[in-house]
Write a structure and sequence with these properties.
Elements lengths: L6 E6 L1 H18 L6 E6 L3 H8 L7 E12 L2 E10 L9 E9 L3 H11 L5 E9 L13 E5 L5 E2 L15 E4 L1 H5 L1
Parallel strand pairs: 2-3, 2-5, 5-6, 6-7
Antiparallel strand pairs: 1-9, 3-4, 8-9
Bound molecules: guanosine-5'-monophosphate (5GP) and magnesium ion.
Guanosine-5'-monophosphate binds next to strand 5, helix 3 and strand 8.
Length: 182
């Protein structure tokens, strides 16, 4: 079985992702010069974006990880977020850059930001590969660095999964309808 055969259309190509990551990395190098940012990757979906984005950065930086999952009642996010992995770094006084795969309603990130704020970092900003602003219900979540704004479609690839699969695809695409029915 080839996962690529289940993709109906490609929304963001591998080349587009690479080009955008180079642009964002340049911006981040400038904004975080002498700040040694803590690149806080939200597992599991942000792994490929974290690697692609930071490999073009040249300033000193550190990595850490956090895992927060939202419980979806059907297809609509109901707002319950569970944190299962916390960063091991002392966050006090650190400049945190949260790396996310996609912002949909904003519920997950809103909870993550609240938890991190209590640990007294110097700053918190968000970099997301994809943004679906039309679905936002948490108004105060404003990512400073956005790869691509996409329409309200369920996407997979470049970290994003359907039932834990498709994360390894080098592009972002939309699944064929019949895949959901299986
Ligand atoms: P939010 O809390 O912003 O509603 O949801 C964010 C999380 O929902 C993302 O981190 C991701 O795990 C999941 N999600 C939202 N939209 C999509 C999508 O189009 N495709 C996939 N695979 N996951 C999504
Ligand atoms: Mg996620």
């Amino acid at each position: 079985m080839n996962l690529n055969d289940n993709i109906k259309k490609i929304l963001v190509t591998q080349e587009q992702i690479e080009k955008r990551c180079i642009e964002l990395a340049k911006e981040l190098d400038k904004d975080y010069c002498d700040k040694k940012p803590l690149i806080l990757s939200l597992l599991k979906g942000s792994m490929p974006f974290t690697v692609e984005l930071t490999k073009y950065m040249t300033i000193p930086l550190e990595y850490d990880y956090m895992r927060a999952s939202s419980y979806h009642g059907g297809t609509v996010s109901c707002g319950n977020v569970a944190v299962s992995i916390m960063p091991s770094t002392n966050l006090q006084g650190r400049n945190i850059l949260i790396i996310e795969d996609i912002i949909d309603t904003g519920t997950t990130l809103s909870t993550v930001v609240k938890i991190l704020e209590e640990l007294h970092p110097a700053s918190i900003e968000i970099a997301t590969l994809l943004d679906k602003p039309s679905r936002r219900i948490v108004a105060d979540i404003k990512p400073k660095y956005v790869g691509f704004v996409i329409p309200d479609e369920f996407v997979v690839g470049f970290g994003l999964d359907y039932d834990e699969l498709y994360r390894q695809l080098p592009y972002v695409g939309v699944l064929k309808e019949e895949v959901y029915k299986k």
